[in-house]
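Below is a filled-in request sheet from our internal design queue. Each sheet records the structural input a requester submitted and the sequence that came back. We keep these sheets so that new team members can see what a complete request looks like end to end.

REQUESTER: design group, bay 2
PRIORITY: normal
MODE: inverse folding
CHAIN LENGTH: 305
BACKBONE (tokenized):
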């Protein structure tokens, strides 16, 4: 758009960008950067819902939430986080899911490290939102003295802690078994099996998370996720009792064992010439009947727990 100053005869030029040009200018063209931002947002959404529900329960003294409501918030939280970034970053959300993929050659090791750091940063940043949102409630509940332990502790809002009677061995088993069960959820994505309907995978994953937390969450709140625990400084907190390594090593071991179990007992035994979404009987009839090769290749879902 051009206009002239009639009084002085000095032309001026004003450029107005269209919405399309602004959108193109803002678009991220680096795929890794886009994936990292998507993973960051997904983890942030998940942590905001979980910690917001925890803050509501703790600061109200249990009158506006409890053990069940906190776990219940995590289920749609995982579902929403998976929808947010599932087709961009894969919605890993958890290094325990990424590590087995690296060992099987499905994910570069550099991506595992980058995703883990992004998840760690996301948890740390996202925690500031419920902290600000419930600042007055925290002040009222604690009387200004915010502690990690004691009758008025508030640290459990932002991180998970073991119950006092839990031994290291029992806690390690808790983490391994919880993550092992989480890896069983990969059957949801197995289109050679009875995989979940397309587009509903996040819903089924959310229900799986709810089932795991309600059945295995009493010992230590079911962290099974290194970034969630480590982002709030678990090393200084747990160094004295030796617990610090349990939520670090346990989920990684459980992730590898869960993947190995599902692969050795189920996944690797699918008929090689069967088509996705067929049951075993139909696959066998197809293989021995018409003799025509499967035309449909497996489209691996990008959803990641």
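RETURNED SEQUENCE:
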């Amino acid at each position: 758009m051009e206009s002239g100053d009639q009084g002085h005869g000095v032309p001026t030029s004003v450029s107005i960008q269209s919405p399309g040009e602004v959108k193109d200018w803002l678009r991220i063209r680096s795929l890794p950067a886009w994936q990292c931002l998507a993973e960051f947002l997904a983890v942030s959404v998940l942590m905001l819902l979980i910690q917001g529900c925890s803050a509501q329960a703790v600061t109200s003294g249990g009158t506006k939430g409890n053990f069940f409501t906190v776990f219940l918030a995590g289920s749609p939280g995982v579902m929403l986080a998976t929808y947010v970034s599932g087709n961009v970053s894969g919605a890993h959300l958890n290094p325990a899911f990424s590590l087995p993929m690296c060992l099987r050659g499905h994910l570069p090791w550099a991506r595992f490290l980058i995703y883990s750091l992004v998840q760690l940063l996301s948890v740390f940043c996202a925690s500031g939102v419920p902290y600000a949102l419930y600042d007055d409630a925290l002040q009222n509940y604690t009387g200004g003295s915010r502690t990690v332990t004691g009758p008025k502790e508030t640290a459990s809002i932002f991180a998970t802690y073991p119950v006092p009677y839990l031994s290291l061995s029992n806690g390690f088993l808790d983490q391994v078994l919880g993550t092992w069960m989480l890896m069983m959820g990969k059957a949801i994505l197995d289109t050679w099996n009875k995989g979940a309907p397309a587009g509903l995978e996040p819903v089924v994953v959310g229900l799986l998370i709810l089932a795991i937390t309600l059945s295995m969450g009493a010992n230590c709140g079911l962290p099974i996720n290194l970034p969630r625990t480590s982002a709030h400084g678990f090393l200084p907190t747990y160094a004295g009792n030796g617990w610090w390594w349990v939520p670090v090593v346990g989920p990684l071991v459980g992730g590898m064992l869960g993947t190995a179990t599902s692969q050795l007992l189920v996944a690797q035994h699918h008929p090689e010439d069967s088509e996705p979404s067929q049951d075993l009987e139909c696959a066998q009839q197809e293989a021995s009947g018409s003799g025509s090769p499967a035309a449909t290749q497996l489209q691996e879902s990008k959803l990641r727990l």
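SHEET NOTES:
- The chain is about 55% helix and 0% strand.
- Strands lie at 2-4, 11-13.
FILED BY: M.R.
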